[in-house]
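cron nightly-structures :: item 1 of 1
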Amino acid sequence: MASSTLGKRIVFTGGSGKAGRHVIPYLLSQGHKVLNLDLVPLDNPDVYTMKTDLTQSGQVFNALSSLFDMSEYGHPAPGPPQAPDAVIHFAAYARNMIVPDNETFAGNVLSTYNVIEAACKLGVKKIVIASSETTYGVCFSQGDTDYHSFPLEEDYDVDPMDSYATSKLCGERTARSFARRFGVDIYALRIGNVIEPHEYERDFPGYLSKPEVRKRNAWSYIDARDLGQICDLCVKKDGLGFQVFNATNDTITTKVPTVEFLRKECPGVKITREMGEWEAPLSNRKIREVLGFKDVHDWRKYVKV
C-alpha cells in the first residue's frame, strides 16, 4: 500500500526478539507503521503482532497482504489485498543449539525463502533481511580458528562451518536471486553481536578484562538501538539492488587501539588496509559511506575504561 506520508508501512518478522524489540520503536519514532509477525507477542501497545509460521508459505503470503491492526477494519475497503511498502525479515533460530542443526538450517532457509518470494510476488520493492557476523567463519567454528584477514568487509571470502551461518549465506544467495529476477532492492545485514542497553554494565567489564572471549565476535558489536537506525536508513535508500552490509558500531571493544591489538592477538592474520585507530575489525565503513550511518551508542558512553 503506497503511503501518503513520509512514514512507510513495514512488515517486520521476528520483532519480539532481542533485536526487534529495540529496532521497532526506532522505526515508529521515524513515522513508520509496523506489523510484527512472530510466534510470541511484542510488548508494545503501538504494534500489532500476528502469530505467523514463516515456514508455511500460505501464511506468509496472507500475512504480507494483511491489515496492520484491528482498527483498520474501520477503513473503507481498499480493494484487492495491499502489500506493505517494505519488509524487514529478522525472524530465525538465532543461533545453533536451540534445535538440532538440520532444523536450524531448514527453518532459517525456508522462512527466508518464503518471506522474500511472497514480498517480491506481492510487489514489495524494498526488503531487508538479517544475515550474520557468523558468516565470517569464526563465531561458531569448531575449536580456535583465525580470520583470513582484517578488516572483515563485505567482499571477504566467507567460509563458515556451522549450520546457522550456512543458513544465513543461503539467505543472502536467495536475496540476490530474487533481487535480480524482480528488479527490487534487497539488503542483507551481516549483523554483529547485538547489545541491549542493560548489557553494557553487566557484560563489558568482563569483555575488557578478557578480550579473548570476544574473538568469535571479532571484537565488534551493534547496539540494538543503532540497528534500528540502520534498518530505517535501508528503508529510505532506494535503487541499490542486492547489497550486503555489515551492521556494526564504529569501534573495537578493547582498551588497546585496533591495529596494535590485532597484531598481538592474531599475529598470523594480515591487515589489508589502513584502519582507523579504534575501528571495529568487523568494519561498518560501507554503511557509513553508502547509507550515512552515524554511531550514536558507542560503548564508551556506558562503560568506564
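cron nightly-structures :: done
The chain has eight helices and eleven strands.
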